[in-house]
């Protein structure tokens, strides 16, 4: 497990950027944290780290956005509005999670049973400082811990 406190969004993006450097094709990242904690900000940094040039916005209504301009395809899920895990099948979630791109999922706690066993769990939490966030990473299964 690693833990770091970031002072602003830029630092959160930088943490994610450096994690991106160590990702192998097929990596899965599960993001946990309250509304406004910084899950999308983290994803934005990860995307930049992969060289994605498109703007990264939260896919809250579409549940999935795909970015193909980086070194690996990035599949960005936000399952906040998922009504039934069955929707994941139509989205291609299981195929994409088993594929060679990078998957990142906001609100992973809502689909805890569906997550692949080999993954990086990332918890983004508020701190007492207005713009401070605690970022904890926990590798699960065969995921090799990213250093930053
Ligand atoms: P979530 O996707 O978790 O709902 P967002 O990433 O959309 O959250 O929003 C996070 C908000 O918090 C943004 O407005 C961002 O600028 C702000 N923010 C303030 N401090 C931080 C920080 N240390 N890390 C990330 N975001 C921060
Ligand atoms: Mg978000």
Summed up:
The protein is built from four helices and seven strands, in the order βαβαββααβββ. The protein is of the alpha/beta class. The protein has a seven-stranded mixed β-sheet with strand order 1-7-6-2-5-4-3, with helices on one face.
Characterization of this structure:
- There is one protein chain.
- The protein is of the alpha/beta class and 148 residues long.
- It is 23% helix and 27% strand.
- It is built from 4 helices and 7 strands.
- It has helices at residues 9-21, 39-49, 87-91, 93-97; strands at residues 2-6, 28-32, 64-67, 74-78, 102-106, 119-126, 133-140.
- It has a 7-stranded mixed β-sheet, with helices on one face.
- A hairpin with a 6-residue loop joins strand 3 and strand 4 (74-78).
- Helix 1 packs across helix 2.
- The termini are close together.
- The mean pLDDT is 95.
- Bound molecules: adenosine-5'-diphosphate (ADP) and magnesium ion.
- Magnesium ion binds next to helix 2.
